[in-house]
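User: Working on a comparison across species. This one is UDP-N-acetylglucosamine 1-carboxyvinyltransferase from seawater metagenome. Can you predict its structure so I can line it up against the others?
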Amino acid sequence: MEINIPGAKNSILPLLVIPCLIRGTLKYSNIPKISDVETMYDILKILNININIKNDSATFNSCNIKIPLLISYESNIRSSYYFFSVLSHFKTKIIHPFFSGCKIGNRSIELHEQFFHKLGVEIIRKKNGYLIDSTNFKENYSLSFKFDTVSIGATINAILLSIIGEGEIILKNCSQDLYVNEVITVLRKLGGIINIHNREIRIIRQKVLGIPIKYNIENDPIISGTSIIFAALSDKNISIKGINKKWLGEFDNIINNIGIIIKNNKIECQEKLNPFNVCTNNYPGLYTDLMPFIFILGSQIGGSYIEDKIFSNRFEFAEELKKIGIKFERVNKKVIISKSIFTFNETVITLNCPDLRGGAAILLASCLCIRDNPDKQIILNNYQYIQRGYSNIKSLIDCFDVKLSMINSNQAQFSSSLKPINLHSGIRV
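Assistant: Here's the predicted structure for UDP-N-acetylglucosamine 1-carboxyvinyltransferase from seawater metagenome:
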């Protein structure tokens, strides 16, 4: 069987606000079919930006863009804050709804606020949302700014806010992730002048952007890593098409040391996988978004250690998996993972997905559990979290002969594909 890697979620979401910076057309391809993208499309339509979708491509025409005083939509994604920067170029006051996203630790927008303030834009928290006051936006201004900590979102928002105007903006201690790189690549194609040296970005501000371009989104490194671990834990011969090995960062070295090798799109595992001691860090370190899957891998190996240096509340999914037998303990900031057998006493059990990546890790553990206990069924609540970031869910669960049935928009039911089930409510594995 084959798993196909889609375009990168965390690249396309900020790229989708760039039409607001031009008056013309822009085409993206290799766009993942996920709910977060649909939400961003809805916001663009509020701004009167025309969208023509064909397969995995979309063409955007912003010639008739309109900026309302209040942008009203149900924002369940964090990336809607990229509209803060691009709409500030209209030098007006706009109220944006509060955004949510995954609750995995401190995700303050303080770094964004600090930089916006330097360029004369104020982010003010109101009862009904964020008021973005850009009436005093400094179009003709130069500055040097250093982020207190490395942040993908703050780096991207700072670039988007800086690109139009006059002067030079120097950003220090920036993120080096693929997602930042893709935003810079598109802005360069549109006429932007941006130079990168390690974690420093220099922007020569331009009065106008807008050369019509086409751009193909890079394949998703997080789904690449997710798929590698699904395939490694499967008993099947699986080919993965489109692994973004270039942007896997430290993950590539980690799985090699564990005994998992990528060879000609195939995943090869040594007979006995090696335990590991790893910690997440900013790219090119281990992505925090891949930590939950490495955690599940560790539960099948034992004697392994993980520390997450990026987010403080990333292990909520692991607490939920205690219901089906995962074994681990926390020692200071590290988690020690013991070899675990996934099972439970009941015929059917319900697990709650706490966030996007944690939910997908629970999905992986559920597949392992049902493979070894084909008479069991698992219902996943908050399944919509997983749908926010994964367009290839079916190919992932096919690695384990697991059947997925939707109960409603928030629940899924999983069971052995060899034993059809009758659904009542929810989503089951």
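For your comparison, note: The longest helix spans residues 356-372.

User: Helpful, thanks.
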